[in-house]
Amino acid sequence: MKPSKYSIVIPAYNEASRLPRTLQPILAFIKAKSWEAEVIVVNDGSTDATADVVREFSRQHAAVCLVDNQVNQGKGRSIRDGVKLATGDIILFADADNSTPIEDAELLVQAIEDGADIAIGSRWVDRKLQVQPQPWYRRLNGRVYNLLLRGILGLDYKDTQNGFKAFTRCAAKTIFGMQRIAGWGFDAEVLYLARKFNLAVREVPVEYTYYAEGSKIRPYRAGARMLVELLMVRWYGLTGKYSGSDSAAPGAPEGLASVSFQEGPTD
């Protein structure tokens, strides 16, 4: 039986110029597929017109909701905020730059319908799907990080950092209820927690286009921070920090009806 509802979470920091090209195809896709869906955009303390862009979309499309965080807290925290409020049976998050087309969401959904708890979009399972690859230095940094990921956390995935992942509702509420890393390293933490709870993770090849304009990652600074965050995840695991949740119980129902948005779809 197919799920009745989908939640798409989009973290956004100073994305006023790129969000329209992402939200428009997502809304067109939802309509074409007759999905019952909500699109939750988490504005992470932007200093540009990101919030205003989302408000305008929400006025025209009831599916679009804005979570407007006044202070920048990081991608991991933004996605956690969005997942906490999501009501879908399948919860997916996607980057604001539309680097992976929303049409590939069907591949992730199919993997979940086939039994996976989590489906992660991968740029490296089939490299031919990279329409515009990252520059060489970012690919090199990514490979080094992947080696560190395997050595520190023991995670054997080709690509953990692509911002296109889908979860069953229970898996998302369980993992993001315990997630602690606010920055870029949250992806590794999510997969570490998935292994802790014996959740089935499937890596799915997806299309990818690198957009240099508007990128927020400073490779070397971000790389150093992500290494620290890997060590933090390992430390949290060794010291039992993931033995309980500081929010909802794993899998507990939580949704838009029970939590107030700072901006709603009809505002």
Can you describe what's shown?
Strand 1, helix 1 and strand 2 form a beta-alpha-beta unit. The chain is 39% helix and 17% strand. With 267 residues, it is of the alpha/beta class. It has a seven-stranded mixed sheet, sandwiched between helices. The protein has a two-stranded parallel ribbon with strand order 6-9. Helix 5 runs parallel beside helix 8. It starts with 5 loop residues before the first strand and ends in a 29-residue tail after the last helix.
Give me the side-by-side strand order of the main sheet. 3-2-1-4-7-5-8
What's the SSE pattern? Answer: EHEHEHEHEEHEHHEEH
Oligomer: single chain
Average the pLDDT over all residues and give the rounded result.
84
Largest sheet: 7 strands, mixed
Rg over alpha carbons? 17 Å
Q: Low-confidence spans: pLDDT under 50, at least 5 residues?
A: 245-267
Strand content: 15-25%
Span between termini: 34 Å
Number of helices: 8
Write the layout of secondary structure elements.
Layout: E1 6-12, H1 19-33, E2 37-44, H2 50-60, E3 64-69, H3 75-85, E4 90-94, H4 105-113, E5 118-122, E6 130-132, H5 136-153, E7 164-168, H6 169-176, H7 186-196, E8 201-205, E9 208-209, H8 219-238
Helix pairs in contact: 5-8
